[in-house]
Amino acid sequence: MCGRVFYFFYESFFMKIFYKILFFNNKKNIDYQYNILYLFNFKNLIIVNRSLIFTLLLICATFQMSAQNELLDSLQSKIEKIKKDSTYIAQQAKEKAAKEKAKPVEQVPGEVRENLNDALDKATKIISPAKILTIIIASLFVWLTTKGTNWMYRSLADSFNRHRLRILRLQPITNVILWVITIYVLVITLFNPTPETLWALMGSSALALGFAAQDIVKNIFGGLLIIFDRPFQVGDRIDINGNYGEVVRIGIRNTDINTLDDSIVTIPNSKIISEHISNANSGALDCMVVVDLWLPIGIDVERVRKIAFEAAITSRYLNIDKTVTVLFFDHFDNHPATNVKIKAYVLDARYEKGFAGDVTEAAKKALSEASIYQTVRRM
Amino acid sequence: MDFKNIFYRIKDVVSDYGKLTYEFLFVDEKQEKSVIEEVEERAEIPEAYLQRFRLHPLHDAKQLEGRDEEMAMMQRAYENWKITRSPLLIVGEFGAGMTSLLNASSSIYPHAQILENTCNISNSDELVRELKNALNYPEARTLKDLNTLPKKDDEQVVIFENIERLFIRKIYGFNLLEDFLLLIHATKKDIFWVATINQYSYYYLNQVIGFGSNFLSVIRLQPIKKAVIEGVINERNKGYERVFLKPNTLSGTLTQQLKDSNANKKQELLKSDFFNKFHAFADGNISQAMLFWKRSVTYVKEKRVYVKAYEPKSIGQLSLEELFVLEAILQHTSLSNQELYAILRNSNKGSKLILEKLMENDLLYAKTYDSQFEPEYQINLLHLNAVKAQIHSRLNRNIK
After folding, report:
1. B198 CA to chain A: closest CA distance, Å?
2. Which of B220, B237, B268 lies at the terminal end of a domain, its last residue?
3. Is A64 a residue whose pLDDT tops 80?
């Protein structure tokens, strides 16, 4: 339910932003607005539910098609008008040329200078030092704010351990929202671009990005997919390409995993979305831990079961709300052996190894005291 | 674009942000420091007055208040036993008045034998020693002997208090409890067994070994009603006039209300504020209520008692190891250092060090039942709520 509400929020929020960027409430573009509304009404048909990007692409395509049709009509009418005016213009040009011949040569550099000054004025209006400084300060401020909110989320997660994962999963979403709002506000307030400029900018940027920054764009889209499609969240314990550990950060470009030997592995988001991901806890605080004990084939199963079961239920790390299972498997590969699997849930996924170690230690001690051989744990 | 405006706006936001960060970072630390440095000055309170609030089980059913429903349920369970032959389990919080309830149950079970287990029973010999007297079967040497008790004409009622004393959370530590449960099942036709357990042990044992399924009748002691607890406090203050003092921390509304009131109205407001805090702390637990009152009494002059609401000290953020120790003690009611060492599977010295630290922080107190044995450590009821909250939040245990 909360997921649906949130999804509705983010979908409508982003749609509104893009909608504003596209049209700026320009009444001339009312046809395009209808096109977009039409798309919104039939969003289920074009499966907007999961992929915001896909929807945006469709909006772009529809917009371009409508724009092209209108452009053709306007071009035809303009060509006819130009034909009519061309004769008049040619005549005027001839008269002007005749006058130009009489003009002194010294006036030409002056006009060039004027033109240059005009161009410079226009350019400085668009990109002024104040605007650049504003962008830098705003970016710095947002960067600091994201760092601050990240710290706040971590502090809250420490204080409310039971809701740790719920709190941490808000972290990447907040960061994305903050950046999107900042970019939107900066673009609108500082540059106030027309829809035509925006489309031209988007087209040229797409082309440039397509050639030069393909990997970065892939990572960013991967990051957005991870944040909104949520195959895993901050705090989950995942395994990607043999890198097993806790997700500590989901960034726009990379995701950081803290492995069991306490090293941070940074994986590009584009790699993550194309790989198989194994998630041990999927947003829950606890996770299942399987402890393997290797024992001789002729053991007293009843005694071993009791020891293995009690080793798990007496562990301080056990999640006592979930059941403990003890399973026996015989192996005859190289040396005949019985594999005892103790399946239990640890109270917090962070203590996974502590739990496995505690159970193994207790079981080993009890099995040794009962003269049932030594144990070997395989993870 | 007015660059100056942007600059001032950013400046304002940064200063707000800094202020918030400062408060978040340092204010708690300040408060903690003041708690550490605070020297509690308690005036001498006459022993005669304190005696009235001493925590001890009641022996007279007439004195027991607020447990009418539980008494009726015990009566019903006894009637049911005559048909179903199922034992009864009573689950309660520390200090909820379990022993007083059992003492009062003599009106329902006049010939009941009460086995009050104050310390842990570690082997079957100790258990047999206790049971053979209660069951009046002196020849019994083992639990097997007790399983085959000779049938008696009279119906027997045996109340086994603190059944959690029969287990210890270690490998093979459940054997004695399981044997005892087998004994209950073997003899329940002739004996009405009433066992009591604290709610943390019950929660643990129920989850890991399905303990509760051995009892068809389970009574959970409910928090005592506010009016009843207030009545008990009033009763014990009989002969004394109470004067409520301004607490150390006052809400803005109360401060304003006090400013605008006369002396009588002020007392009413302070009394109401005091009892709000009192009930929030006690939460229906009579022992905690008594402790709160005792801690709140600042001094007694002639027949006048001056009361200022007790403000519990923060126990701070406990370490994981400390929480594991406290949880183990809650599950067993009390533990000795040796037992704790066996439960936590750490070194003997390690567990002793944690115990000493917790004692220093007033979270535990040591109780010596027998001079031959080492002391057992129990949770200080004053900090029970705070400890429970941390165990619930940090160890994800569903206890409240």
Report:
1. 17
2. B220
3. no
Residue type at position B259: K
Examine residue B19 and state whether it is found in any structural domain, yes or no: no
Any B CB within 8 A of A352 CB: no
Indicate the number of domains in chain B. Answer: 3
Same domain as B277, residue B210: no
Domain count, chain A: 2
Question: B335 and B273 in one domain?
Answer: no
Q: What is the pTM of this model?
A: 0.71
ipTM: 0.82
Q: CA angle B129-B132-B138, nearest 5°? A: 105
In a domain, B100, yes or no: yes
Whole-number pLDDT of residue A27: 45
- Tokens standing for A200? 């031209």
Indicate whether A213 belongs to any domain.
no
Helix/strand/coil (H/E/C) assignment for every residue in A90-114: HHHHHHHHHHHHHCCCCHHHHHHHH
Indicate whether B37 pLDDT > 60. Answer: no
Domain end point (choices A58, A77, A96): A77
CA distances from B37 to B26, B30, B81, B313 (A): 17, 11, 58, 12
Chain B contact for A132 (CB, 8 A cutoff): no
Range of the domain at A7: 2-77
Quick one: closest CA in A to B167, which residue? A314
Residue B141 has pLDDT above 70, yes or no: yes
**Mean pLDDT over each residue of chain A, to the nearest integer:** 78
- Which pLDDT tens digit goes with each residue over B292-327? 999 999 888 888 899 999 988 888 889 999 999 999
Residues B214 and B230 in one domain: no
**Whether residue B256 sits in one domain with residue B239:** yes
Q: How many CB atoms lie within 10 A of CB B333?
A: 21
CATH of the domain at B74: 3.40.50.300
Q: How close B324 gets to chain A, by Cα (Å)?
A: 7
Verify whether the Cβ–Cβ distance A145 to B208 is below 8 Å. no
Q: How many CA atoms lie within 13 A of B24 on its CB side?
A: 15
Q: What is the number of CB-based contacts under 8 A between chain A and chain B? A: 72
In the predicted model, what is the mean pLDDT of residues B213-218?
92
Whether A192 is in a domain gets the answer no
A310/B393 Cβ within 8 A: no
pLDDT tens-digit readout, A77-122: 777 887 788 778 788 888 887 776 665 556 667 788 888 888 888 7
Asked whether the predicted pLDDT for residue B82 surpasses 60, the reply is yes
Q: Mark whether B109 and B74 lie in a shared domain.
A: yes
Order across the sheet with B156-160: list the strands.
B113-115, B156-160, B191-198, B88-92, B217-220
Pairwise CA distance, residues B340 & B362, whole Å: 18
So what's the pLDDT on residue B164? Answer: 93
- Closest partner residue to A134 among B3, B17, B174, by Cβ? B3
Same domain for B187 and B91, yes or no, is yes
B395 touches chain A (CB under 8 A): yes
Could you tell me if B201 and B286 lie in one domain? no
* Domain end position, chosen among A77, A94, A119: A77
Range of the domain at B338: 320-394
Task: Scan for tokens 């009545």, then name that residue.
Answer: B231
Hey, of B171, B209, B388, which one would you mutate to test binding to chain A, going by the most A CBs within 10 A of its CB? Answer: B171
The whole-number pLDDT of residue A65 equals 57
Most confident of A15-19, B73-77, B263-267: B73-77
Cβ-Cβ contacts under 8 Å, A344 against chain B = none
Which pLDDT does position A44 carry in this prediction?
Answer: 40
| Residue-level pLDDT at B18 | 59
Do both B135 and B265 map to the same domain? no
Residue type, B265: K
Q: How many helices (H) and strands (E) does chain B have?
A: 16, 11
Residue where one domain finishes, among candidates B220, B248, B278: B220
